[in-house]
Structures are given as C-alpha cells and as structure tokens.
C-alpha cells in the first residue's frame, strides 16, 4: 500500500487543515481556535450569512463541554457525499470519464467490445455515451472492464489516471475541482475533533487512492459502492485480492444509511449532500437524538461552476429542495454563500 | 446512538490505554514511552520471551523516525481477530450463547420454531445444539430470528445481553474474559499511534455495541460478518434501518482479506489471530512490502483457560501452526508467554 497517499503527505489537506491534521497538536490548536474563529480565520471562502453562521453555531453547541448538546469527540461523526458536494460532478462524473478512458485503453484486449454495448458506444462516441447510465450501471461496466485484475493494480490505474486526466471545461486535474469552501469545512470540523467520512454512490476503489491527499480523508473513512473481490495465492506464491465482475453493494439513496450503518456503525451528527440520492442520508442523520446538522450544496453558479437542480440528469435536486425547509436543513446557495468555488479562482 | 459506549466512557480501555486514549496527549506520552518501555511499564502481563521481544522490536522499527522501516502513523493499521484472540471462545462462542438465549426469548412469537430445526433443537437442548454450526449458519439463524427489527433495537438487545449473561465456566460477564495481555497490547499499539481494527468472522452488529468499552475499539474500527438492512420511513414518519433475513458478507477465512480491503482499504502492517480462519488475514498482512508482524494466540493453558489447536471444533489451529515457522509468524504459548490470562486472575 506504499502508493497510497499517506496522511502525512505534504498535500492540500495538510495545507488546509493545517496543524489539525496532526493529532498531537489538536489541543493547542483547539485553544487557538477560539481566537482564530473570532478573527474569522476559519471558513474564509464562505460569505457571512445564515449557512456559515449555522455551521459555526452547531459546532460550538456540540463541542462546548458541559453544554446540553455536548457530543464526545469519538461520536462526532460527519458524513459527506462526494460528487457535487466535495468536488465538481459536471459535465460528467469523473468516474464516467475514467470508465471511458479505461474502456478505450483496454479495448485492444477485448475485440468483442466493438460489437457489444455500451462498450461499442463508448469506443465510438467517448464518455458522453455513458452520460445517461446510472451509478450501478456504471459500476457494472467498470467491474466487467476490470474483472481479474488485482486491487493493487487497480489502485495504480486510478492514481495514474487522476494525476494525468484533465477536466473538459477547466482543463485542470479533476482533483483541482474540489470545492475550496468544503475543504475549509472539513479542516474546521477536524480541528474540532469531528471524524469526517465520505459516503458516496461512487466506487470506493475509485475514491480511496486520492481522498486522503485531496480531502484529508483516509481510505478507512471512505464509504462507497463496491464490487466483490476474491483472495487467491498467486502463481508466485504471493497472496492477491482479485476484482470480480459481481457488484457487492450500492451506496446510493437508501443505500447510504445502510452503508453508514455497516461501515461506520454510528449515526452521524453532521451530514452534507447535494442531490436527491443524499436525502435518505440527511434524513437518517437529522432524525437521531440530540443536536444534528444537515446541509445541501445547491448549485446556483453557472459562471464559476454550474447551475442545476430539479430537472438535472446529474445531481438532480428536487425532493431535497422540498424537504429542506421543514427539516431545517441548511441550503448552500453556491453563488451567494461561497466567496470562491475553487482554490484556483 | 446514545446507547453506544463512547470512546470517552470511563472503561477498561481508558484504564488500560491510559493517556494514550486521549489523542492530544499522544506526543507527551510517546516521549514518556521511551523511559516507560525500558522500565517495563508496557505489556506487564507478558512474560519476557521471544514473542514479547519481537512485538517491542517491531513497534520500535516502524515508529523510529528516519528508520528504514518507518511507517507514518496514519498507515499503522493493526488487525485483530476477536473470538479466541481478544477474548475467550470456549466452550461455545459468546454469539452462540446469545443466539440460543435470543431463540428462547423470541420463541413465544414463533410457534413454528417448535417443529423447525435448528430452533427446535435449541429450545430442547439449549446452546449446545448450536455448538456444531458454522459461522455463516449461526449468522443465518440470528438473521432469521431478528428479521424485521431495527438496528437500534438490536443494539439494545445486545447491550442488555452482554451486561447480564454469564460465562458457563467462569460465571462472569463474557466481557471479563477479554485477554489481559491482548488489552495491554492494544494499549501499547495505540500509544505508538497504531490504529487497531477488529476483523472477526462474528456478526458486526453483535460486537459493535461493546468493543469500544471493552477493547477501546470504536464501532467504525470493527469489521465482521453482516446481514442486509433496509432503510424505511416508519409509521411515525421517522426513518429506521430494519434488519433483513439475508446475509450480506461473511468475514471469515478468505473473507477476512476481502473485508479488510473493503472496510479499511489499506493493507495492515500488524495482525493477530488464533485459528485457521485467520490464516488468509495473516498471509495478506505479512506479504505486503516493508516491515510486517503477524502473531497467533496458541491456546496451551487448560488450567487458566483452554488447551486446543489442530483437532478442535472451535478455533481449529492446524494450517496456522504449520505455516507459522516459514512465515516467521510469532506463536504465543499462552501458558508460558502470558503472566495472566484474565484481569481477574
């Protein structure tokens, strides 16, 4: 696992979360926070407004010792959707671009794909051919494409792709399209001894190789959809884990609370999503006892990113917008609540 | 999740791991360790010998900055089997006793069990009727018995049972039968910024309610076999997760490396087991690059606990004993390597 980005890499994470990334310095940092906060050193890319205020107010409530809503650090579980919540999901999911590139790269070994859908369509039209497929269909395609390769080899494939592929609109690595305000939110929560998890409908093997470096979220705190693997002793006598074609778990919609229960085993107190696929996760989080926070990233900024919600094919946000007011979920108006969307802007 | 034992409970964990349980004090503690170790303050229930020496030597190697085998704290993943490795698994798995008690408790609502195996046998003969069933058969029985109850209700059932049930031989709560030397090992590893996980063939929902309190291992660091759950909006409009009869994942034998890959996403550098079901986990751990440690608890102490290995129905250790020498796995001779087996002895 030496190719796994380590929690100690010099990375955006350590830059952003600063000393908070080093557990031994949490205490001094925590003392510093009181002043830091009043000086507005946290959440710098967030405009002052009800959403920023509600985040700071919630964190203060659950971290104030002897407060009625105090939550011990070990139980400060925060969950975040990935696509559209932590990074850009338009005009296609990064994983769709990856799948398309993988199909093209592997096509020479699969002549049958020339006449088999959706492979043929991808080879003819590129990633757009996959724009309409569902999360589970996409994972099935990837599972088929990578059947028989080891998890270590797949991890290397993902790392090679994520460091070289570029976003079609911004012409930058996809990892540059992490939302700066959300990275600051992760750092802010870590500094207050929250334990942030990703809970994504995307493939867990596609995320884990880079989430630590980009978000400061280590592999064991990434929950996602997964395919089955098989333990085998290789020809050289070395054990390997081989990817099978069979899907194992889809972590989307109602699968998100199920995935949280299975991977984390505690109900989160803080959750952030951006689409109707996140609604069950927000419901599960905010219906628990005690103080709870849920937020929705509403994409309202066509100029700096994208503007979409109720009718969108990707990241459709319809039920979520309807449910937010009665559930007191904070809705981020990207255009007005975020000073910056990306670090490079 | 308020009934979940919190990481901050005053518990055996905090007593044992002492300040190490508090991340902000890891640094001062680490400095203290250098002296503490030479003063033999760690691993007090371990007799001096090759196994204790190899553990201390390994931890020093991977934690020495600038050392050739240094591993960053974030990557110091340690995995432990539960039954027979962290606590007593004889004369029957605690989970078997739990299942038997549950079948008896639920029998009135299931008249059909009077004529249906294995339920009928349990109602007639008690837990012994389940002694021969496999891990997956046992989980299927539990899944059937608890179909339709919520995960919160099941958690409460487990907590009620674990605090009242008593071990047939020692007449104490099963949680008193955690191995004192292994609790000290967990504390020692935590103090050196290892992240310990349980990887058990047992049901994850049976372990998570108490592993934090007993071992200092929080729910999100417990991997085990699981059944499917379904997200529903209850009659009162509140979301619930309901247990289904269907098994989802068996974390035993080759399923342990698969479970480690799926739940943790990194290859461990340290692993401990006690039976042939743990061999794939030990192979997977020690075949990775860099310094690796694997240990086997060999039950050789009929007087203080039990003596069993190659022919045992429970915790059969045959392949593991054969594989240990060539793989340089440390084999704990319980009788000679452990000063005490249980805290109460």
Query: What's the average pLDDT of chain A?
Result: 89
Distance between the termini of chain A: 34 Å
Task: Give the topology string of chain A: H per helix, E per strand.
Answer: HHHEHHHHHEHEEHEHEEHEH
User: Mind summarizing the main beta sheet of chain A?
Assistant: 8 strands, mixed
Instruction: Pick out the low-confidence regions of chain A.
Output: 1-29
Structural class by SSE content of chain A: alpha/beta
Strand content of chain A: 15-25%
> What proportion of the residues of chain A is helical, as a percent range?
25-40%
Radius of gyration of chain A: 20 Å
Subunit organisation of the chains: homodimer
- Overall spatial form of chain A: globular
Number of helices of chain A: 13
Q: In words, what does this structure look like?
A:
Chains A, B: GO terms for molecular function: hydrolase activity. Chains A, B: This is HAD family hydrolase. Chains A, B: It comes from Mesorhizobium australafricanum. 2 copies of one chain form a homodimer. Chain A has helices spanning 12-17, 26-38, 50-63, 94-106, 119-125, 135-146, 151-164, 180-191, 204-215, 255-263, 279-286, 319-327, 334-337, and strands spanning 77-80, 195-203, 222-233, 239-249, 270-273, 293-300, 307-308, 330-333. With 345 residues, the first copy, chain A, is α/β, with parallel strands linked by helices. Chain A has a domain at 1-41. In chain A, strands 1, 2, 3, 4, 5, 6, 7 and 8 form an 8-stranded mixed beta sheet that branches. In chain A, helix 4 (94-106) runs parallel beside helix 6 (135-146) and helix 7 packs across helix 9 (204-215). The first copy, chain A, is globular. At the A-B interface, helix 2, helix 9, strand 3, strand 4 and helix 10 of A face helix 2, helix 9, strand 3, strand 4 and helix 10 of B.
């Amino acid at each position: 696992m030496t190719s796994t980005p380590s929690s100690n890499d010099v990375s955006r994470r350590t830059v952003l979360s600063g000393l908070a990334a080093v557990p031994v310095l949490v205490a001094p940092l925590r003392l510093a926070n009181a002043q830091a906060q009043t000086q507005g050193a946290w959440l710098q890319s967030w405009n002052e407004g009800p959403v920023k205020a509600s985040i700071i107010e919630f964190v203060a409530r659950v971290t104030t010792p002897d407060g009625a809503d105090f939550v011990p650090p070990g139980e400060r579980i925060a969950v975040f959707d990935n696509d559209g919540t932590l990074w850009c999901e338009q005009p296609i999911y990064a994983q769709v671009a990856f799948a398309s590139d993988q199909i093209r790269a592997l096509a020479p070994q699969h002549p049958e794909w020339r006449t088999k859908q959706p492979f043929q369509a991808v080879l003819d039209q590129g990633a757009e051919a996959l724009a309409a497929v569902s999360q589970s269909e996409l994972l099935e395609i990837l599972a088929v494409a990578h059947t028989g390769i080891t998890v270590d080899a797949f991890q290397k494939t993902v790392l090679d792709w994520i460091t070289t592929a570029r976003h079609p609109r911004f012409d930058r690595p996809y990892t540059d399209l992490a939302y700066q305000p959300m990275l600051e939110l992760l750092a802010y929560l870590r500094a207050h001894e929250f334990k942030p998890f990703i809970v994504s409908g995307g493939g867990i093997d596609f995320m884990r190789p880079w989430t630590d470096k980009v978000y400061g979220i280590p592999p064991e705190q990434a929950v996602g959809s997964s395919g089955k693997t098989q333990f085998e002793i290789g020809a050289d006598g070395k054990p390997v884990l081989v990817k099978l074609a069979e899907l194992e778990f889809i972590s989307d919609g109602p699968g998100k609370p199920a995935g949280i229960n299975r991977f984390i085993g505690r109900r989160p107190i803080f959750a952030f999503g951006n689409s109707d696929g996140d609604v069950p996760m927000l419901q599960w989080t905010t219906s628990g006892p005690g103080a709870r926070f849920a937020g929705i990233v509403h994409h309202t900024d066509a100029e700096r990113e994208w503007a979409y919600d109720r009718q969108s094919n990707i990241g459709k946000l319809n039920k979520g917008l309807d449910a937010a007011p009665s559930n007191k979920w904070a809705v981020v108006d990207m255009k007005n609540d975020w000073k910056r969307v990306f670090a490079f802007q």
